[in-house]
Amino acid sequence: MNPINTDASVGEAYRALVEKRQNVIKKELESALPDGGDFIWELGCGHGHFLTAYAQAHPDRVCIGVDIVGERVDRARRKRDRAKLANLHFFHAEAALFLQTLPLSATIAATFILFPDPWPKVRHHKHRIIQPAFLTAVAKRSLATARLYFRTDFVPYFEQAKEAISAHPAWSEDDGPWPFEFETVFQSRAESYRSLSARRAVGI
């Protein structure tokens, strides 16, 4: 077997898979945001507890949650359907692919990242979502008045996220109040947690 051809076929299969997933996301976005506009985004929405409560409290806001685990998204959608929330949408998607597929007419008004995987081992820190490249990508698709809200019960991750956000030219740490409180499953299990909010930097 020719290893070069094998590598090429694997790469082609992966590209086809990504394209198929992107087409699904595109159709879902057309349904959720037919006329574009801004929306509230929760990254790592899990079973949808927080965003469902948020959407109920803010019926005038389009809310979109994404998660990489399909079973979680299925449960979140069932929760949405029981609540009959037309302004709430859940996507089975990875953050980068979602942002790449987002139409230019759509912009993020606020991003919530609540108790993400802390990836505690040093060799896994590269997998943490709060990284300079991610902050840049979100800023490019956000309103000038956008906010980013981050909460974790893992202090080292909080400190790393705080440092990354403070050093990033597109974001500025904000000492404003937390906009909406609803205890998630992870939050209920945490002995303590720390919260951080940031705003889009002026002129970026």
UniProtKB/TrEMBL annotation:
Binding-site positions, S-adenosyl-L-methionine: 42, 67, 94, 117
Residues in coiled coil: none
Enzyme class: transferase
Keyword Methyltransferase recorded: yes
EC number(s) per entry: 2.1.1.33
Keyword Transit peptide included in the entry's annotation: no
Pathway in which the depicted protein is active: tRNA modification; N(7)-methylguanine-tRNA biosynthesis
Protein name in the entry: tRNA (guanine-N(7)-)-methyltransferase
